[in-house]
Design brief:
2 domains, 205 residues, 0% strand, Arc Repressor Mutant, subunit A
């Protein structure tokens, strides 16, 4: 016969184990959805396939996330963390900054471009894509802070706009996908674009 003390100790342990299992299940579902998003168009992904990939029932996915929009919200958080980790570099190391940016685009650029292409037909994507645009602008502001922070507000905004364009995923697409440049050539070209802009900023302060 179990004592009351034993029962009270077992209950929190069981609750913790269930919470950890639920968290692991949720993470597995998000990972499965993100893996699909890296390879497929958003509107082609089905909850049935995500559930099968995660080894759960469809109702589990719906109960946890509500649907694809809820899954996308969680996947964007995970993707943002991955993007930030891939792009991390010292603010005074331009070659490393551009190298890491290109590495990130090689990993996730095509998936982002697919979502951007669907944006006009799927309004639910806009908030998440706007968030991504904001995150890229924040990366530019942080990566090139030594040059930008010395400018007056209006000049800083204009310079940031130019750097955003020079490092945008569409710039990568033009070089890699449309023009067929190699990885090395793309990295060199984007570095040259950014270097020219930074030199212009320095000369016009």
């Amino acid at each position: 016969m179990k004592s009351a003390g034993t029962t009270s100790k077992t209950r929190p342990y069981a609750q913790t184990a269930r919470a950890e299992a639920a968290e692991a299940t949720g993470q597995r579902i998000v990972d499965a959805f993100l893996a699909r998003l890296m390879e497929q168009w958003f509107d082609e992904i089905t909850l049935d396939r995500v559930a099968a990939d995660a080894g759960v029932a469809v109702q589990t996915v719906i109960r946890r996330f509500g649907g694809k929009e809820g899954l996308l919200a969680s996947a964007v958080k995970l993707l943002t963390a991955q993007v930030n980790a891939r792009r991390e570099a010292p603010s005074d190391d331009l070659p490393r900054q551009i190298h890491n940016l290109i590495v990130d685009y090689e990993e996730a650029g095509d998936a982002v471009l697919r979502m951007l292409a669907l944006e006009p037909r799927h309004p639910t994507l806009q908030p998440f894509l706007d968030y991504g645009r904001g995150e890229h602008r924040k990366w530019v502001a942080a990566a090139f802070a030594p040059a930008l922070e010395k400018l007056a507000p209006a000049a800083r905004q204009q310079a940031t706009d130019k750097l955003v364009i020079a490092t945008d995923v569409y710039t990568w697409k033009l070089l890699r996908r449309d023009m067929g440049h190699s990885l090395e050539s793309t990295t060199s070209t984007m570095k040259s674009l950014v270097s020219a802009l930074l030199a212009d900023i320095a000369n016009n302060r």
